[in-house]
Amino acid sequence: MLRTSITRLPVRQVAIGALRVRAIASSATPHPATTIQNTISEVNVVPHHIQERDRRGIATSSSPLTRVDAVSTVPTMQGDWVLFHPVYTREEIKAVEVLHREAKTVSDKLAYGLVKFARWGYDFLSGYKHKPIPADAKMTLQQLRKEGYLLDEQGWLNRILFLESIAGVPGMVAATLRHLQSLRLMRRDSGWIHTCLEEAENERMHLMTFMSLRQPSLFFRAMILGAQGVFYNLFFFAYMISPKTCHRFVGHLEEEAVVTYTRCIQEMEAGRIPEWSDMPAPQIAIDYWRLPSDSKMLDVIYAVRSDETTHRFVNHSLANLNTNADVNPFAMREPDMHVKGKQIEFKRDESERYVQESHDIMVQRRKEVKEEKLSP
């Protein structure tokens, strides 16, 4: 049903229409293009024959291209070189609700149980308790943090950096396996690969944003290396066995992410993370989410939570489909946050209607373009 709803258009027309529809659906405002001349003017490349050498005789250079940074290899150059991603209005970022999908089938219960176990394990190892503050408590902020009621700025950063370094794995694994399957079976993927890649990159951009606030220690990096290696391989084999269960797992994982960022927002608005109260938004976040130039760290957290809400909705919806035959309903456009923030998923029949709506929009847009060309 879903497949026949979208394959009425020739391949080339579907691709062109998808680009147009996604441009219409995105709420992003036009971003000033960075010209090649401007880019070149910011990079002062030193010729090889006049390069300086360090004490070991290794050639060095003052060029920004050789200055390696955790966020960017060229920290003086700004831009948005990324895949499609939503950009939210102020109304949209406030439309997010903390939701949970009840697990009904055995595979769904397994996925949810694994997420809860993973969260419990990480909370235990990191010492995170999130104990409710007693109503009659008369403790200072430092006392609340010392007693384990609140996390300090360092605790929040450690938690976010670790989680985001792992959260970027599932989308890349799914995209890799579906890409290889498409090559192996010599058939189209029906739009799943792009959505999975977009999710992986979106999570990576979250990591890059928070990396601009702190450089992790070698021990912290070693922990990420080990966790990523284990999780990547486990998820790789799991996705080969049951893609539906894996998407359900990610959907529940994103539910927990929405809870985490909602708590962070609540604590920031209550003044319990004063280090971030007036902190300007990192430039990488302003570029990525098209934020106003005077945005604060709170605006960044709101945007990140909206992204996690998108992943929650998309993965729960994909888990309701036939992963081998159905078209990805979000390949061409996505609902706005007033839908994704208040609804946990699309049922399969809702996805089918959404694909048909996308098809109708494409046909209408092609008709309008044709009429514009014919008009004098």
From TrEMBL:
It is found in: Mitochondrion inner membrane. Binds 2 iron ions per subunit. It comes from the Eukaryota. The keyword Repeat does not apply. Keywords: Electron transport, Iron, Membrane, Metal-binding, Mitochondrion, Mitochondrion inner membrane, Oxidoreductase, Respiratory chain, Transit peptide, Transmembrane, Transmembrane helix, Transport. GO terms for molecular function: alternative oxidase activity; metal ion binding. InterPro entries: AOX, AOX_sf. Pfam families: AOX. One of its GO terms (biological process) is alternative respiration. Its cofactor is Fe cation. Belongs to the alternative oxidase family. Catalyzes cyanide-resistant oxygen consumption. May increase respiration when the cytochrome respiratory pathway is restricted, or in response to low temperatures. This is Alternative oxidase. It comes from Armillaria borealis.
